[in-house]
Amino acid sequence: MKRIIYIPFDHLHSNYGALKGADPAVDVIAMVESARMTTGRNWHKERLFFLISSARHFAKSLESEGFQVEYVKAATTVTGLELVSKKYPGLPIVCAEPSSFRQFEALKNHSVTFVENDFFLTPRALFRSWADSQKSYLMENFYRKQRVRLDVLMEGADPVGGAWNFDKENRLPPPKKYEGPDYLAHERDRIDIEVAAEIGHLITTTWATTRAGALAQLKNFIDNHFAEFGPLEDAMTTDNWALHHSLLSPYLNNGLLHASEVVEAAAAAYRTGKIPIESAEGFIRQIIGWREYVNGMYWFLGPDYRENNELQANRKLLPLFNDPSATKMNCIKETVADIQDRAWVHHIPRLMLLSNLALITGTNPQEFLDWMREVFIDASEWVMVPNVIGMGVHADGGQMMTKPYAAGGAYISRMSNYCKPCEYNPKLRTGETACPFTTLYWDFLDRHKETFAKNHRMSQQIFGLNRLNDLPELKERVKEVLEGLDQGSI
Ligand code: SF4
Fold first, then answer.
1. Domain coordinates in residue numbering, the chain
2. Which SUPFAM superfamilies does the entry link to (predicted)?
3. How far is Cα 148 from Cα 130, in angstroms, rounded to an integer?
């Protein structure tokens, strides 16, 4: 044997990273199930189950390709690698560049050598050169460059369909009664059952833990959901937990699928003429635009970025985030219950319900970030740090987004069916039945009006604030709402 190839649990693809060109005759594979990863935090059991079972299945598939696989359990990744090195003394350890600053540091200090991380479509150096050339890091500008560079949905130098994005077509509220095709239920095998038993998880069939299952999920999305994805991508409904979302982010983030496979499948489907441009463009933008941008920004902004708290938000995490019975707000109750069931809700409840609530209540960004990391199935560090600190709670003072994503109940009422059965009224900002989102939205603007005064993208909101004639009553209600949220009675 000549090398130890270390495969982290988010590099599970044979054709990318350190496995590209690996040879069973000379390469031994190391995988480490570290206690830091399994018991270090209050991880959602579904998430742990998915990550561990996927890794064990992947180890088995490498063995069937003829590799010697050392799958060890240890306190940390480094102690696990030491165990493997003892068995194969003197062999160098190779790994693709890890996906977080912490693991990069730990492995560098352990003299691991790195090959380029090609689990993304944009090399880190290429992103940096783009970001260095920008005054503000607008995702839309990056995305257009990606479309041209990767030649996706292009007609020569022009975007297919005559526009770079179709956001306006993609903001439909939920249909009266959603009756879309079912999502796949994934069969479980011996490895799945073993992992679930070890971590005390009640097994579900929501998420695949194999490459074959991830490919089946991709095919199911393309065949049955892709055409209708775009117009309903922002809608929220209690009728269905996923609408037409792809449910592919967990597999993209742990390596079972590569972004290029997903983009190629989507582009090929579009070429058949069966997929409307607004769905094709909306979906492809998530993959080649947003996903790549967020990863690029994680590395560009550096390890200290996660500690930002520019709005001085210091409220402790509200009890409702961990307990849906600790609130009467129907939108939050439903969303947190969904997360408890599947470790997933789509991007709009994440942004416009959960993050919005953390933002306008002044919840500490790091406490909220830690919670988001723990409960979502696809919550890698590189995804969550920019998404929460930059986009979700505007804790970076606008380095990433030009304005905060704060909204009152009117937006939620328009884009969901949560409000009708709710105790609160999205139109009211004062009084006992006022929607907490609406009350706290105005309070948020009022508390930060000086910060946002010079931000021209906030001028309309600040103008609206200045026209309010019930600020004293609003402040009374704010007090009641915040106390009630802390006590779990609102
Ligand atoms: Fe949520 Fe307010 Fe609507 Fe109730 S009224 S569901 S709290 S947005």
1. 3-115, 124-301, 307-487
2. Cryptochrome/photolyase FAD-binding domain
3. 14
Asked whether 243 and 282 are in contact (CB, 8 A), the reply is no
Q: What CATH number should be reported for the domain whose range is 124-301?
A: 1.25.40.80
3-115: which CATH topology?
A: Rossmann fold (3.40.50)
Res. 181 pLDDT band, cuts 50 70 90: confident
408: Cβ below 6 Å to ligand 1?
A: no
Q: What tokens were used for 469? A: 């004639």
Which tokens in the block code for residue 224? 């049955």
Whether the pLDDT of residue 178 is over 90: the answer is: no
Alpha-helical segments (H) within 255-307: 259-271, 277-284, 292-301
Q: Averaged over 203-208, what is the pLDDT?
A: 96
Alpha carbons 93 and 22: distance in angstroms, whole number: 13
Alpha-carbon distance of 423 to 379, in angstroms, equals 32
Separation between Cα atoms, residue 319 and residue 315, nearest integer Å: 12
Pocket flag, ligand 1, residue 362 (CB < 6 Å) = no
Candidate CATH numbers 1.10.579.10, 1.10.1370.30, 3.30.70.360, 3.40.50.620; the one for domain 307-487: 1.10.579.10
| Contacts (Cβ under 8 Å, ≥6 apart) of 149 | none
Nearest to 316 by CA among 363, 386, 283, 276: 363
Closest CA to 307 of 369, 357, 247: 369
Ligand 1 atom closest to the Cα of residue 437 is 2
pLDDT at residue 229, as a whole number? 93
- Predicted pLDDT of residue 171: 86
Q: Give, for ligand 1, the residue of 238, 328, 329 to mutate: max count of ligand atoms closer than 8 Å to Cβ.
A: 329
Ligand 1 atom nearest to CA at 438 = 2
With tokens 């199930």, the residue in question is 33
Q: How confident is the model at residue 470 (pLDDT cuts 50, 70, 90)?
A: very high
Q: Is the dihedral angle over the CA atoms 146, 150, 156, 159 positive or is it negative?
A: negative
**Does the beta carbon of 481 lie inside 6 Å of ligand 1?**
no
Classify residue 367 as exposed, middle or buried by CB count within 10 Å of its CB (0-12, 13-18, 19+).
middle
**Is 12 touching ligand 1 by the criterion CB < 6 Å?**
no
Q: Which residues contact 487 (CB under 8 A, 6 or more apart)?
A: none
